Amino acid sequence: MSAADSERDVIVIGGGLAGIAAALDCAAAGARVTLLEVRRRLGGAAYSFERDGLRIDNGQHVFLRCCTAYRGLLARLGSERGVVLQQRLQIPVLSPGGEPVVLRRSRLPAPLHLAGALMRYRHLTFAQRLRAARAAVALGRLDPDDEMLERQTLGEWLAGHGQGPDAVAALWDLIALPTLNLPAAQASLGLGAFVFRTGLLASASAGDIGFHERPLSETIAQPAAAALTRAGVRVRLGWRAEEIERIGAGFQVRGTGALDARAVIVAVPHQRAAGLLEALAPDIAARLHRLESSPIVNLHVVYDRPVCEHRFAAGVRTPVQYLFDRTAAGGAPPGYQYLAVSLSGAEREMQMSVDALRELYLPALSALLPRARQARVQSFLATREHAATFRAVPGVARLRPGARTHTPGLVLAGAFTGTGWPATLEGAVLSGHTAARAALAVL
Fold it and tell me: Is residue 213 a part of any domain in this protein?
């Protein structure tokens, strides 16, 4: 293809949420788009597979009502029926030997919508609840864009506002771990302030939780393939991009083959992006090499009878962080129950064998779920994502690049870019929209 022929061409490298959103936007604006994905499927880090007769998601990717970009992408893909959104935030919190405590927002405006739930939260003493309320008000007043917040951890700030280790473990880490993929003791105060302010304190309904009722392959990968085809995007699966070279005013992407384009959107994980950018954007590549990763481990447990009455629940004073009922979505046999246990910031669990995980977590589940003590475990599986997200530690904001590089037409997308959000579904989709605008600007 000649240079003139490629003037309206955009290549998107990566078929995750960021790449899907960017490709659809570029195609809608009239660009000729080719999406390259090294795997034989779309969806990136949000995918499903089959094992032992179960349909298993690699992770429990929940979202919030305030995640408008992600919800908009689901609508664009026609996937709304595959998800469900809480009418009001409600989190059952379980602890060994105790009755469940439900954190439920009221209909009052923010921040009063959580006051009643906090005052009734029996996993804290009354004095701890009062101190937590004062800390929440102070946290809501922080500006997440203040560079000073990148100099300390969320845990250090909480300690300075009267939050001891027990209060952090029983309350603050319920939000920090699943959103930042790190405990408060390690996480960036800036990103922590953003999460609490945006998801819980900005509006009463912002933190209502959304769930994927169907496997991720049915919610994202398959509908995305159909939507991209309808939009005229050429999707090439099993195509590995290995090098990007500047050719005149455009680029050539080499790997499984060679393709020319006026603009290239790099929408792969940050470690992979660093390798592709070393020749044309070495400064950004160096920053991405310093952007570390944080793991997630998921446990998949099938019991021979129902043992949990909750759609999902959090755990305190237990190694179980969050558990989800995936019986229907996973296709468990009639009468059985399939629970998925999500473990964020799971550096310890990454090093444990399946047998060691089973030895630790089955008794922990029985301590939370009395009916599990009489049940037989039909299946116990573990899935591991060693580089599930970038590591959201203090100073990370300086390492996250924007969409544009110093080379016009070479653009970045991905949850690791400077979206302001942590590594979430929302951040990934927002980055795709931003990258598309930057790529279209050079056409």
Answer: no
